[in-house]
């Protein structure tokens, strides 16, 4: 197994670097005055009427930690402030772990339950903070990994528990593939930072779940499960545009899994599970066939039903960002020009429709005619997907993003 050349055609490295820095510049006001990271509006201003979310604060640590590694002025300060928010007001001092969100006074919003999705991002934040040498990073990572191992990793099943009540007395029956996916990303990063092989091995076991599901459902990944991991194909049929648990197959998640499987393969080498590359191809091909330019206009639809018919046709910015990263990863892994062509095509789409040159960042949501709207997301709360789309195509498939970036920045080639 060997990696191939970097992605060509498409934007050159100088353009990608400039776009990365432009995106980071949009988010420089992300700090919330009470601690943690704010939800940003269309102009990059903090929306202080919204709660402070653990997932946004964690992604802020990650993204601006990457910016600090790039030497972008102000990024280290932003990331450090977000770490402080995770270690104080967002943390449950009574029971451990992190609330999903808190209000201006520090009270939990939406209950005190603890989600694997949030905690996976806290682990990712901690791993990036350690690589970037940010204050509090070591303590954050140690805390996050301890909580995750105790409550969210199910060693017997080789899978993750999705959610607990606030006092960790009982898990919620629901199991979800979204939390499993982001756990793979976080565990690869934690393994790279800590050198503990168990984290990479756990990521591989979750990757095997995606391989099984892709084979059983023709490349359309079920997202929702019961407590025994029995598939629920009908969940939220009446709320198909749910931002975290939509009905049907989520096109962007198939693309994200397609990339993550290649990271697992590159990380574990000969010890990687079988079928990762083949499954990556299957997921990519199905997502493109079902989702890209299928309704008369360019762009990826958000979700489809189990026959591939679009359900929610709105275009989310994160989906095309993940498509770009998946195409880059598959081209790097295989050298096949078709992936490079898709990569270039989707960057052209971002420039034409998604990139907001007037107000900054990327439009987070477009309607089926590629006009900005806000039916699922309002504002521009997050830079995680877009910034990663500018960095991942320039890096090897392993190690994970922060660890790979710190090596690349030190090399002549990155400059």
Uncertain segments are none
Q: What class, by secondary structure content?
A: mainly alpha
Count all strands and give the number: 12
CATH architecture identity: Alpha/alpha barrel
Average pLDDT = 96
Number of domains: 1
The ordered string of helix (H) and strand (E) elements is HEHHEEHHEEEEHHEEHHEEHHEHH
Largest beta sheet: strand ordering: 1-2
CATH class: Mainly Alpha
- Please state the overall shape, judged from the principal axes of the Cα atoms: globular
Query: How much of the residues is beta strand, in percent?
Result: 5-15%
Largest sheet properties? 2 strands, antiparallel
Jot down its keywords.
Glycosyltransferase; 13 helices; single chain; two-stranded antiparallel sheet; two-stranded antiparallel ribbon; 6% strand
Walk me through what this model shows.
- The protein is mainly α.
- It has a single domain (13-409), classed as Glycosyltransferase.
- It contains 13 helices and twelve strands.
- A hairpin with a 4-residue loop joins strand 4 and strand 5 (159-160).
- Helix 7 (197-216) crosses helix 9 (276-291) and helix 8 (251-268) packs antiparallel against helix 9 (276-291).
- The longest helix has 20 residues, at 197-216.
- It is globular, with a radius of gyration of 20 Å.
- The two termini are 27 Å apart.
- The mean pLDDT is 96.
